[in-house]
Design brief:
It comes from Kineosphaera limosa NBRC 100340. By secondary structure, this protein is mostly helical. The protein has 2 domains: 3-76, Arc Repressor Mutant, subunit A, CATH 1.10.10.10; 85-220, Four Helix Bundle (Hemerythrin (Met), subunit A). Helices cover 73% and strands 4% of the residues. It is built from 11 helices and 2 strands, in the order αααββαααααααα. The chain has helices at residues 3-18, 30-37, 41-53, 76-82, 86-109, 114-133, 136-152, 157-163, 167-178, 181-200, 203-220; strands at 57-60, 64-67. The protein has a two-stranded antiparallel ribbon. Strand 1 (57-60) and strand 2 (64-67) form a beta hairpin. Helix 7 (136-152) packs across helix 9. The radius of gyration is 22 Å and the shape is elongated.
Length: 221
């Protein structure tokens, strides 16, 4: 069986799931749903198995296959797709950043080395160069790399591991804000303040600088 066919079946089924088509009823009978998706029953079974693994679907013996509440889904991308309010999704991601990155910054401040701080300085300079030329891609990549230094070197490996699943969604957020020149200028100021606090201040000051940056990002959305 082609993995591509299964992937296509998963995508077709996901489109209908996130549209709320099965919110109050079970999925159609296997043969009927296979016909609707234009796949074989075997391919459909594999697609359902994939979505069961991701917590999207559950099978109740004798009753059928049902869609689980979104809170039970394990795919960050699918949770985002199920949202009917894109702006609210962006705000919720900012909330996650607030919880995780401020704490990670406080931890990082206690173990940051001159080499790591120099690396952050290089990322900040890359942001400035990209801003000067209007290079949004370069700006976003340098921005992400600046934060990665903190997340990956804060002394707790679980932080980066837990952050990784939402990184692609946050990248999309960065493009929303990074496409505007005045927002890039403010972001550079906030990143410079974070780095200055890490070099010269306390862990609490660095944490506060990161919080200020994230709050500014929320306002920029």
């Amino acid at each position: 069986m082609s993995a591509t066919r299964v992937d296509e079946a998963v995508e077709r089924l996901v489109v209908r799931v996130v549209a709320g088509e099965f919110a109050d009823r079970p999925l159609p009978r296997e043969q009927d749903l296979a016909d609707e998706l234009e796949v074989s029953r075997l391919t459909l079974r594999e697609a359902v198995k994939v979505l069961k693994t991701q917590g999207v679907l559950r099978v109740e013996q004798g009753r059928g296959t049902f869609v689980n509440p979104v809170r039970d889904w394990e795919s960050v991308d699918l949770v985002a797709r199920a949202s009917r309010d894109e702006r609210r999704t962006h705000e919720q991601l900012i909330e996650v950043r607030r919880f995780m990155e401020t704490g990670a910054t406080a931890l990082f401040a206690q173990c940051a080395t001159p080499e790591l701080l120099a690396r952050m300085g290089e990322r900040l300079e890359a942001m400035r160069r990209a801003d000067a030329t209007g290079d949004v891609d370069g700006f976003v990549e340098a921005d992400l790399a600046f934060h990665d230094v903190i997340l990956e070197n804060c002394g707790n490996p679980f932080v980066a591991m837990l952050y990784r699943p939402i990184s692609d969604l946050l990248r999309a957020n960065r493009y929303v804000t990074g496409s505007r020149a005045h927002v890039r200028s403010r972001a550079i100021e906030k990143h410079a303040a974070i780095l200055a606090a890490l070099r010269e201040g306390t862990a609490a000051q660095a944490e506060r600088a990161m919080l200020d940056h994230i709050e500014q990002t929320r306002e920029d959305l």
